[in-house]
Amino acid sequence: AGFSHETVSFWPGVTSLEDFERTALYGADVIEKLRGTNSSIGGFIDVCEQEGVELVPICAAQGGATATVADEVYGHYVPYMKKGFAEVAGELDGILLALHGAMATESRQDPETDAVREIRHVMGYEKPIMVTFDLHGNKDEAILREATGIFGYHSSPHVDSGETGRRAARAMLATLRREIRPTMAIA
């Protein structure tokens, strides 16, 4: 799943649900439209399909780099993802999330950590959650308690978005196979 936005706090107005919905993808369209793209989700798809792993696409919503996100946007996508994950919770081994790391809503300064926390409450702490972020995502130790692994882009322009998704997906599979046990720290 993906829910991504780079908030430019001095940009006037708000980024609306309509702004996100112009390009949002749901269900099988996520795989169909993002397969082979240089995006985090494209990287997730690459690795999972190569490894014969079944993907359960929920949504991919991206708002670009614009004004503060309207609360209704968070109120739409996060419950949608939670519901989607809850409906297939027994079938899921882990969750791959493409986020940005620099989103802010009208009432939330760290909506991505809040979203991962809400998904975690639905899915439990036994299942790994791997998250991708833009290279300048603004994160603190709170996300470390919720995500199993965090993977940031290494370049700007973002020519490695797909590779970042592939790194996250490979780490997910290695975690599920008990080949690795991810550990994170913030320095």
From TrEMBL:
Pfam families attached to this UniProt entry: DUF1485 (PF07364)
Residue ranges annotated for the Microcystin LR degradation protein MlrC N-terminal domain, each copy included: 1-186
Name the UniProt record assigns to this protein: Microcystin LR degradation protein MlrC N-terminal domain-containing protein
Species of provenance: marine sediment metagenome
